[in-house]
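In response to the reviewer comment on reproducibility (Comment 2.3), we provide here a single inverse folding case reported in full, input and output, so that an independent group could reproduce the run without further information from us. The structure tokens appear first.
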């Protein structure tokens, strides 16, 4: 447990250090991958070719049936946790407008940043105990990745690995 807490603390310090160095937090997979290795976390990258994005899914998460047509990926674990990827038409909404909308529906901890060079907004939805990240696309869509429920430090650490792994596969 101490090792897990130390890794969580290291990731948080890395995030806050990036925030001090820039106006927005910038995270790259190259910075996070060694922490993953230190924690003994394994998994694999899944590529979503239709949107040219790859994301790390930890071992123990399995692909599940998509809840509806807005989902492009849905993974679950035996403990009930899930990672959901939605790709929805936002009719050209930018990140600032998205953040304002999220705040109006109860999102907390809203922060702007970049993950692997992709501008994003991160937030929490206390109602469903989720941590989320959203990206807007040139096509006017929003890619939203939701990790829930977040009930322990271990859950939050796993979610931070997943959310920091999202990267473009476009050449």
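Designed residues, in position order:
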């Amino acid at each position: 447990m101490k090792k897990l807490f130390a890794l969580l603390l290291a990731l948080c310090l890395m995030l806050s250090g990036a925030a001090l160095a820039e106006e927005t937090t910038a995270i790259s997979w190259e910075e996070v991958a060694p922490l993953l290795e230190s924690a003994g976390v394994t998994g694999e990258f899944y590529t979503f070719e239709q949107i040219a994005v790859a994301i790390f899914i930890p071992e123990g998460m399995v692909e599940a049936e998509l809840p509806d047509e807005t989902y492009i990926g849905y993974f679950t674990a035996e403990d009930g946790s899930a990672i959901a990827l939605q790709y929805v038409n936002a009719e050209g909404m930018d990140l600032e407008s998205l953040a304002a909308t999220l705040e109006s529906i109860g999102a907390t901890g809203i922060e702007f940043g970049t993950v692997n060079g992709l501008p994003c907004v991160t937030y929490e939805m206390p109602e469903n105990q989720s941590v989320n990240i959203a990206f807007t696309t040139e096509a006017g869509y929003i890619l939203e990745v939701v990790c829930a429920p977040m009930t322990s430090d271990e859950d939050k650490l796993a979610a931070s690995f997943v959310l920091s792994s999202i990267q473009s596969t476009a050449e």
